[in-house]
Amino acid sequence: MVAQRKRFRIESHPAHGGRASAEPRPVLLEGADADAARIRHNELMDAIASLQARLLRQAAAQPSAKSAAPVHMPETGDHAPSISDVRQLKAELDEMKAAITRTKKEIAALHAKGIQNTNVGHASDHLDAVVDGTEQATSAILGAAEEIDQMAAMLQVNLGDPQDKALAEDIQLQVVRIFEACNFQDLAGQRISKVVATLGFIEERIGRMTELWGGIEAFSGFEPDDMPVPSGERALLNGPALADEEDQASQDDIDAMFG
Q1: Number of Cβ within a 10 Å radius of residue 128
Q2: Pair (51, 102) in one structural domain
Q3: Which tens digit of pLDDT belongs to each residue from 128-175?
Q4: Whole domain around residue 55: which residue ranges?
Q5: Where does the chain have alpha helices with state H?
Q6: What value does the CA radius of gyration of the chain take, rounded to a whole number of Å?
Q7: Are residues 141 and 215 both part of a single domain?
Q8: Higher pLDDT residue, 26 or 186?
Q9: For a surface tag, which of 178, 222, 225, 226 has the fewest beta carbons within 10 Å of its beta carbon?
Q10: How many structural domains is the chain composed of?
Q11: Chain centroid, CA 105 distance in Å
């Protein structure tokens, strides 16, 4: 293969036997010189390709470097957020912080009232006691009404006076009304059970919120607001004690005091 070698300018100088005004004449290489020239040419082209690839990689890496810069506030609409927008955002964040603080104070108050047995769970226990008490009372009323109905039926059979029989029949009719009225216990029990379930749901959610905020120990720095002290008749509305409460006087204790 014959390759053409470029003629350097110094070779055209008269000191080197060249002519400055003459056109450079191509030099043809043959044999080993042509192979060496081809190798140098390939190496040069590989170096140029490597440099080009490196420049392309650097250019592609520039956007990612820009994206790693500090993130600025995004523009809203056709303009950047104004000072009023920033102030409004700060005001909303302050309201959220105040709401969280109030919530923590309320939870701390619930915990403090729980120590005094006035929390939500204690209210649920009292409502359960109401359901049990009405159920027992209704059972007693129905039992007594059945006895009255049987006695009225016996009177109606044994009495000879038609007026007395009619009176015994009226008694039986009134007993039927008692039976019908005792349905209140079932309806009232269902409604109270729904209220108890709602209170239990609220108590469970409050417990989960307390756990998310680090447990009740996280509320040690929040002093609950003082509860108003009831006065007058309200101060006497303590209600009956539950059966499992300690340090409560039972009816037997009261009877023993006056015995």
Answers
A1: 14
A2: no
A3: 888 898 999 999 999 999 999 999 999 988 888 889 889 999 999 999
A4: 3-60
A5: 32-67, 83-115, 120-158, 162-181, 184-212, 251-258
A6: 50
A7: yes
A8: 186
A9: 226
A10: 2
A11: 18
Residues 46 and 102 both lie in one domain: no
Q: In this structure, are 213 and 103 located in the same domain?
A: yes
Looking at the fold, whether 188 and 119 belong to one and the same domain comes out as yes
Token duo for residue 115: 């120590």
User: Do residues 182 and 148 lie in contact, with contact meaning Cβ atoms separated by under 8 Å?
Assistant: no
Helix axes 162-181, 120-158, angle to 10 degrees: 160
Distances 26 to 2, 8, 23, 153 between C-alpha atoms, Å: 11, 11, 9, 144
Q: Evaluate whether 153 touches 172 at the Cβ level (below 8 Å).
A: yes
Tell me: the pLDDT tens digits for 63-82? 544 444 454 555 545 556 67
52: left (phi over 0), alpha (psi -120 to 50) or beta: alpha
Domain assignment present for 46 = yes
Is the confidence at residue 254, as pLDDT, over 80?
no
